[in-house]
Amino acid sequence: MSETTADFDVDAWREELQAKRAEKDEFFDEHPQSPIPPEERDEFEGLDYFDPAPDYRVTATATAHDDPEVVLLDTTTGREMRYLRTTTLAFDLEREDADLEDGTYELAAYQQERPGSDQEEPLFVPFRDKTTGQQSYEGGRYMELAPERELEDGDELVVDFNLAYTPFCAYSETFDCPLPPEENWLEVAIPAGERFE
Asked: Which residues fall in a compositionally biased region of kind Basic and acidic residues (predicted)?
């Protein structure tokens, strides 16, 4: 499986993170499929981010759901999208102000229901936290995880909140974005990843 938090090079990680952010800024600024409306791109000066925070790159333990439950996620336009809850990810955050005594949190990970598709979908992790609507987008943020193989109970994988991103619907109403369900509302601030004020 992927490397854990104990054995990674912080400097190399920080450099790679900054490179990804620069690449995304370029996409938003210049690409025809940028969510920034064309008439607003001249004023675009780059996305806003929390400072890189290695503490929010955590190792999560997976619980795989052999018979995934269908979950209907509400969207920003009032529709519903069908997803399968395939995995639950449990992880620790070392936070003095954690609301949970043991500092352990869980997030559900979903895959879009695509009957007949052989293509392996990434794990979709939409979430809200205590920065939502203040320092980050009011509709929550997303992460996508691509494990090297199908996860089994007890597998560990890295969840890097520094890669949490704002859905495209924050920039244009032409997009329809799923909203994080209540089971993925974290009762703690995650000051990592993209900001949006």
From this structure: 21-32
- Is residue 197 in a domain? no
Q: Is there a domain that residue 193 lies in? A: no
Number of domains making up the chain? 1
Candidates 89, 92, 109, 88; CA nearest to 100 is: 92
Model confidence pLDDT, tens digit, residues 141-172: 999 999 988 899 999 999 999 999 999 999 99
Query: What is the domain extent for residue 28?
Result: 5-184
The answer to whether residue 98 scores a pLDDT higher than 70 is no
pTM (2 decimals)?
A: 0.90
CA distance 58 to 50: 17
User: Would 195 be classed as within a structural domain?
Assistant: no
Decide if 196 is inside a domain. no
The Cα-based distances of 30 to 18, 48, 97, 99 in angstroms read 18, 17, 41, 42
Structure tokens at 87: 């995995």
Residue 187 has pLDDT above 90, yes or no: yes
Instruction: Answer yes or no: is pLDDT of 54 > 60.
Output: yes
Tell me which residue has tokens 């704002």.
166
